[in-house]
Amino acid sequence: MSQTSDSARLAGENKYWQRAYASSNVSESRDVYDQWAMEYDQDVSGADYAAPELAAQTVVKLLGDADKDDIKILDAGCGTGLVGLRLRDLQPKGLVIDGLDLSQKMLDIARNTDVYRDLHVADLSQRIALQDDSYDIVVCVGTLTHGHVGPSVFPEFVRIAKKGGFVVATILDEIWESKGYKGEVERLGDAGRSKLVSDDVIGLTRATTTGGRRVVLRKL
C-alpha cells in the first residue's frame, strides 16, 4: 500500500486503521478490532467516512416500493452497527437486520443500538454458518479492505441471498482488481449464479469522489 493511496489517506495517523490494513491473519484482525471497538465510532466520524451512508442509501433504493414488512437483511462485518443505524434512519419500519462480525467487542456495541435482531461472531474468510437463500439483501461495508477477508466471500454472500435478492458491498478500489474481487464477481456471473448490477466508484469520505467501489449483485 503506497503512502499516497486512498486507503492510506483515510487511515491517516490512526494506529488502529493502520494495524487493520497491515493484519495478515484472523487473530491479528480480531485483536485490532477488539482493541479499537470503544474508539471506532469516534474515529470513523472524525474521518468523515462515507461508505455506511452510501451503502444504506443503496439498500433502500433497491427495496424501492416493495412491501417492506419482514425484509431480512444481513449486515456482514457489521462492526459497531453504523450501517444498521443508517438503515433504521432511512427505513425505520419493516426491516429485520442480523449482523456478523469477527470482533465480539464490536458486536457488544452494535447490540446496544437495538437495531439488530441477532448478532453473531463470524470469520468471513470461512464458510458462513447460515442457510442458503436466507436474506433479501446481504450488505458488507468496510470489511473488504487490506486484511484477511478475500474475494471468496462473494460466493458465500450470493449463497446466503434469496433468489432475486441482492448483495451490496463496498471494496477499496485499489484492490478491486489486484486482489481478485473483480475476477470473482465475473466468475459468479459466468456461472449463472449472479448478475452484476453496478460497480461504481465512490468516495471513501464525504469530501472525496474516489477510493472505494460500491458493488451490487443480483442473485439469479
TrEMBL record:
Descriptive protein name: Methyltransferase type 11 domain-containing protein
Could you tell me which species this protein originates from? Lithohypha guttulata
Occurrences of domain Methyltransferase type (ranges): 74-168
Which Gene3D superfamilies is this protein grouped with? Vaccinia Virus protein VP39
Pfam families associated with the record: Methyltransf_11
